[in-house]
Amino acid sequence: MQDLTVLVLEDEPFQRLVTVTALEKVLPGPILQAADGHEAVAVLSACDAVDIIICDLRMAGMDGLAFLRQASSSGKIGAVVLCSELDPALRQATVAMIHCLGLTFLGDLGKPFNLEGFSQVVKRYREHCSAAPKVLSPAELPTLNDVQQGLDNGEFEAYYQPKFTLQGQQLVGAEVLARWTHPQWGVLPPAHFLPVMEAHNLINRLFWQLFEQGLSLQQRLAAQRQGIDLAFNLHPAQLACAALTERITLLIKRSQVPAASVTFEITESGLISAPARSLENLVRLRMLGCGLAMDDFGAGYSSLDRLSELPFSEIKLDRAFVRKMQNQPKSAAIISCSVALARALGISLVIEGVETVEQQAHLIELGATLAQGFLFARPMPESHFIDFCMQRRL
């Protein structure tokens, strides 16, 4: 990877000198500096881009908050690192603001500047850049005709991300995710096709293709005495369809798959203003024997209200809480409370986004039992997933 360009925004001259000097000794790329937000804006406008901004928050003139807000629209910032004496609770709120601005947040070093901590930040940044998916240019983005042709040709494929017990890492099921095996661009994630599908009411076609693929997989595994529970994502618009549960019932009976081995995940935000028909379908799915999971729990505004009203059998805690758990005690407290809530309600709790053994250990301490994330397995195509199941001996 090419050398990194770093901008140090720090109003205190000695602290700025110490930081810049330390960075110049370990980084071969340019180290830029600014004493306030106005100067930082000028520095940013004079260069092509900055990989990492080390940002103080409290300063005279334009402070760090105002600078980040103004600079976020420039498209020139790779990532942000906080280096501030501000109260930890206020720094946490600033991190939320950084995410809302669409910026990549790498870490909070506090003060004084910690070179060892920054070295870890640089490592994460390089991993982030190398793991980032290929972004298609505007000229390459799929058109409506491309997506329709892909659906007609059966190019959309179910990928499976396993779910595990945190202790023992026993495989307990998988979430079904959509991927487009494009003949020209290779395997594309949902960000490249879902917006087009949502705008042109094609989500339903995608869902039924994935649902039938998933049921077929369950049949194949059942024939080898390897039962597996699968979870399918339902779009809020689908819930209002009068024929939804009738068709699901038909396909499940035809495939001879136990309804209890099928779960439907619905995002919390999709339930905020759900019509009566949607609520009826949720009840009917539970009457059929299927599971219902509230996805991204904690990311919306009506979690507890909907959880008390609707027949959910599972909560999937939004991955943001795990990501912030180490540096934000409040996130750990929310996870612990979610564990207690699920236990009191007699439903399952799945923790999303587990990526490190440290997170796994902390979640076990907090009482969590089920999880999914890159630590255990990434989403995989059907053939790989079958081999994965056989190796695990469900």
Labels describing this entry:
single chain, alpha/beta, 8-stranded mixed barrel, 16 helices, 14 strands, phosphoprotein, EAL domain-containing response regulator, CheY-like_superfamily
Q: Would you give an account of this structure?
A:
By secondary structure, the protein is an alpha/beta fold. Helices cover 44% and strands 20% of the residues. The protein has 16 helices and 14 strands. It has an 8-stranded mixed barrel, surrounded by 4 helices. The protein has a 5-stranded parallel β-sheet with strand order 2-1-3-4-5, sandwiched between helices. Helix 2 packs parallel to helix 3. The relative contact order is 0.08. The model has no long low-confidence stretch (mean pLDDT 88).
Q: H/E series, N to C?
A: EHEHEHEHEHHEEEHHEHHEHEHEHHEHEH
E-strand count: 14
What characteristic shape results from the CA principal axes? elongated
Mean pLDDT: 88
Fraction in beta strands = 15-25%
Summarize the biggest pleated sheet: 8 strands, mixed, barrel
Strand order of the largest sheet: 6-7-9-10-11-12-13-14
Computed CA radius of gyration, to the nearest angstrom? 24 Å
Figure out the total of helices. Answer: 16
Helix content percent band: 40-55%
Oligomer: single chain
Unreliable residue runs: none
Structural class: alpha/beta
Distance between the termini: 42 Å
